[in-house]
TrEMBL record:
PANTHER family linked to this entry: ABC TRANSPORTER, ATP-BINDING PROTEIN
All copies of domain ABC transporter, residue ranges: 5-229
Keywords of this entry: ATP-binding, Nucleotide-binding, Transport
InterPro entries linked: AAA+_ATPase, ABC_transporter-like_ATP-bd, ABC_transporter-like_CS, P-loop_NTPase
GO MF terms held by the record: ATP binding; ATP hydrolysis activity
Domain of life: Bacteria
Name of the protein: ATP-binding cassette domain-containing protein
Family classification: Belongs to the ABC transporter superfamily.
Source species: Dokdonia sinensis
Length: 299
């Protein structure tokens, strides 16, 4: 696997505000990553740091194999982290030609990129005549002009109507299918589920989860258990069809469910095996629910 971005213990404090706290994750080529979290959870700050516009307080990151400077590596990155801003009186094509000049890339790929975002027919329309969705699509075309290895998008569907949202998501999927790695920040679980293969969930700058999106949804919850005969219990759980991974930390045993099992059912089962629990808590680890709770009470 080819690594695109490696982040180690990245931290950003603004005075007393810990915008991003000890964040580590890696981005592998070909996947679509979502950074998911409610407003103020540190998504934009994280993107700002890896794009060299925000200075980390602590920690580090490197692009690709880490052999080039961040400045050089960023030439292989396409990013939209602000509202699309182009010259209103210039056409889509003229605006992109200007971007080509600034980025020092050939102009002969402009039409191909306009086609990717569904704006080829509007190439000669002035930017000022575009809807917000079209402006956002033009920004994506612009970010693709340097044929980036990775495309970074911050809340790409914010403020768009349902049709505009759908178009942007389809475009992102198409770009990913063509082999471009994607990193997008979003506060919408539904967006990440629809578009992303992998997710990093942030809350108040702290990583709550990272991994595959499908693994996140498959969660049946888990039990936290303690008893005097730890090994007996661990062996029992390891042979139990309803349990997957079983973790032991000191005297605390955490058993992750792979199929539904009620707390009272487990309790009476163990009792009949003469395993007496001193502690039993079932937690519903459904990150979907957790995340919805987080987003319902913003901040
Ligand atoms: P998100 O993109 O997830 O909404 P941000 O990264 O924008 O979150 O913000 C994370 C936290 O850092 C918030 O509490 C925000 O108020 C704070 N923050 C972001 N940028 C600045 C800044 N330039 N100065 C002070 N605080 C900031
Ligand atoms: Mg943001």
């Amino acid at each position: 696997m080819e690594t695109i971005l490696t982040i180690n213990n990245l931290t950003k404090h603004y005075g007393a505000v810990k915008a991003v706290n000890d964040l580590s994750f890696t981005i592998e080529k070909g996947n679509v990553y979502g950074i998911l979290g409610p407003n103020g959870s540190g998504k934009s700050t994280t993107l700002g740091m890896v794009l060299n516009v925000v200075n980390p307080t602590r920690g580090n990151f490197h692009w690709f194999d880490g052999k080039n400077s961040t400045h050089d590596a960023l030439k292989k990155v396409g990013a939209i982290i602000e509202r699309p801003n182009f010259y209103p009186y210039m056409t889509a094509k003229q605006n992109l030609a200007l971007v080509c000049k600034i980025k020092d890339v050939p102009t002969d790929r402009i039409e191909e990129k306009l086609d990717v975002v569904g704006l080829l027919e509007r190439k000669d329309s002035k930017f000022s005549t575009f809807s917000l969705g079209m402006k956002q699509r033009l920004a994506i075309a612009s970010a693709l002009l340097n044929n980036p290895e990775i495309l970074i998008l911050d809340e790409p569907t914010n403020g768009l109507d349902p049709q505009g949202i759908h178009q942007i998501r389809e475009i992102i999927k198409k770009i990913a299918q063509d082999g471009t790695t994607i990193l997008l920040a979003s506060h919408l679980l539904d967006e990440v589920e629809k578009v992303c293969s992998h997710v990093v969930i942030l809350r108040k700058g702290v990583k709550l989860y990272s991994g595959r999106v499908d693994a996140m949804n498959a969660s049946q919850g888990f039990f936290e258990l303690k008893c005097e005969q730890t090994q007996l219990l661990v062996d029992y759980l390891n042979n139990h069809n309803d349990f997957g991974e079983v973790k032991v930390e000191g005297d605390l045993i955490t058993g992750y469910l792979v199929s539904p099992l009620a707390a009272h059912a487990l309790n009476s089962e163990l009792h009949s095996k003469d395993i007496a629990l001193t502690h039993l808590v079932k937690r519903k680890e459904s990150l979907e629910e957790q995340f919805l709770q987080l987003t319902n009470n913003l901040n």
